[in-house]
């Protein structure tokens, strides 16, 4: 039987969530995956990268508290073995069992849109009476660099799945992948050089985030080269070498290209419906693809908020929209991914961590909000107890017209778990005057909220 109510193409975290939701609602749902069920996140992105970073953070945290016996360095073999376990040894049978238990029809192969509500999977044609949902994710973007084709470069896949610690590593790109992988491998013993074309890494975050993360990388022995572009790549005496715009060069045993990702819309048949391969599929807030009534998309493929948690949120909206046939639902209702616009949380899992939600000050100004920025150091009883020499900064961005929070950034060790409080305040449009009554427990790092509100003038 190849007739379904819903066909989801792409079995990453986003596709799995969309499919599980429509199946739970009683729709006969097929989930099509060309490689491994679980997607990039499970095997070559979120899970293995965080498993590589966590031991270094634990060691650094222990070192900051006198009296805790700690060793000199990480046990790289044990770290890599734990990483392998978090990547399920790159075996997707557990995910397949989950999908079957969720009531999904699991189909292996490459899905291609071949007509209205029709998907070809390696010669087998599936039909969907209700909807087709595209959740094909993204692929690494390769920079145009003379000579690069002759250099065996790593992408995030090799950087997260390497079986040995590279003796040295050049990382091109100072975005999230670049800084996380630079620190993970440096803390495992690699001599790492990070090349970022801007003044600092993490250009999409508040400036102090990139500055503090660059300091953290340097403290781990990473050579951070900022304000230089790569002008060419080559192999010199067996080493991957980048020529840089200031006339210098950097080289290492491996070169990691961490220069961003692009939506996986090639070889998918989107041209048939007026969309260009390699470009994001444009969707409305319910995930419906512009101009195609039965076609939905969610996750990295839409280019909206390329993060696992946000893609899964969009998938839940799509599932609900299909189940309820929502046409123009109100913002902030279940079939609508309203938060994508102004309340996206993200953690950069470096040491220090960067935890941010909503708009940066610059984004808020660009949107014409009446912006007030409040900055404080994270220097409260909770942070000094947490670690000797604790160093961190916090910023809140307030829209003065409504006296509500529109953005928050925390940078410092172990700030990730503070983020959800900020997300709730931004999504809930909590006013400054009401936030004053949300009293942080003493002595926790969250006491910084009180410092922020006092600095605001309350
Ligand atoms: C190194 C790295 C670390 C990251 N860390 C984090 C993190 O800590 N937190 C976070 O929130 N985000 C993180 N991200 C981003 C996160 O990985 C993505 O946002 C997330 O994987 C997107 O999920 P998705 O399901 O849209 O796409 P994917 O995970 O890419 O899954 C798409 C699936 O579709 C399949 N597919 C593609 N085309 C077809 C086709 N034609 N037919 C059938 N199947 C197809 C693919 O094989 C894949 O399995 C990280 C990314 C990278 C690169
Ligand atoms: N912790 C997390 O949430 C997490 C971790 C890793 C990745 N991700 C997500 O995965 C996606 C991909 O991450 P990414 O770091 O590859 O992309 P990115 O877009 O965040 O960063 C890429 C960086 O490379 C730079 N760049 C591009 N071309 C360049 C060139 N030729 N020379 C030098 N620099 C160049 C860009 O200016 C940018 O700063 C992002 O959406 C990111 O948010 C999230």
From TrEMBL:
Residues 4-310 form the FAD/NAD(P)-binding domain. Coiled coil: none annotated. It holds the Pfam family Pyr_redox_2. Its EC number is 1.8.1.4. Residues 344-449 form the Pyridine nucleotide-disulphide oxidoreductase dimerisation domain. Keywords: FAD, Flavoprotein, Oxidoreductase. Belongs to the class-I pyridine nucleotide-disulfide oxidoreductase family. One of its GO terms (molecular function) is dihydrolipoyl dehydrogenase (NADH) activity. Its cofactor is FAD. It is an enzyme of class 1 (oxidoreductase). This is Dihydrolipoamide dehydrogenase.
